[in-house]
Amino acid sequence: MGVVLVTGGSRGIGRATSLLLAQSGYKVVVNYQRNKQAADEVVNIIREAGGEVLAIKADISDELQVMAMFAEIDSAFGPVTALVNNAGILFQQSTIEELTAERINRVLATNVTGSFLCCREAVKRMALRHGGKGGAIVNVSSAAARLGAPGEYVDYAASKGAVDTLTTGLSVEVAAQGIRVNGVRPGFIYTDMHADGGEAGRVDRVKELLPMKRGGQPEEVAQAIAWLLSDKASYVTGSFLDLAGGK
Ligand code: NAP
């Protein structure tokens, strides 16, 4: 089935994606940054179900750590055939007056630079011109890229705008190399991320404002990611699936 790296695969949307892809038969690499316990839990669930899985601690904003992670995957499972660029961060809700250069740069370093670096290492291994067998990449963006997250985290929204542009540009750049690159734009999904923004109950606060009148589950996003990675989406590249309850 192939080898998939899910960045931030230990919690939230990444966790649901790792579990689903393992069920589909992928060898799964669960990347995480800090929370080993959460990563180990995902590993244990997959192993107990008979799947092949590996957890790797690496900060995706750090070039050397990204390169070391891909090298470790090469040795353990062989080169990646699929990549889910899922790891992402945001900080306390605020208006622009409160934003510092340090915060903006931290958001961009993880959400944008991290996604670029993982795409680079994946393309080196997947591209036909390098002797690879092709592959598929899904970048996890956000509805915020379209909506802008005013009064909450415009820095985060802008980082996801950059991720969408990465998806568009890279999809064309590597289309003839057997690599498909697509994006998902979730919104209002029940995960711990909203607590990082200072409002753990955010999804329940806004759900009545959504056309579907409910928040989304990580598993619903995972299904879209799995489809975009799969051969069922073999003619799909440079496309985006919005998973935001109609918003
Ligand atoms: P989450 O529950 O906060 O989980 C974040 C994951 O990313 C964790 O596994 C975390 O690992 C990992 N991570 C964070 N920084 C990292 C780094 N520098 N290097 C490697 N791993 C790192 O987040 P989520 O809500 O599932 O979000 C996943 C993706 O969906 C993000 O890109 C987010 O922007 C996007 N998204 C989410 C929503 C939503 O409503 N939840 C909406 C739109 C888009 P540790 O636990 O080890 O720190």
Automatic annotation (TrEMBL):
GO terms for molecular function: oxidoreductase activity, acting on CH-OH group of donors. Belongs to the short-chain dehydrogenases/reductases (SDR) family. Residues 2-189 form the Ketoreductase domain. Keywords: Oxidoreductase. It holds the Pfam family adh_short_C2. This is Putative oxidoreductase. It comes from Buttiauxella brennerae ATCC 51605. Its EC number is 1.-.-.-. It is an enzyme of class 1 (oxidoreductase). SMART domains: PKS_KR (SM00822). The keyword Oxidoreductase applies.
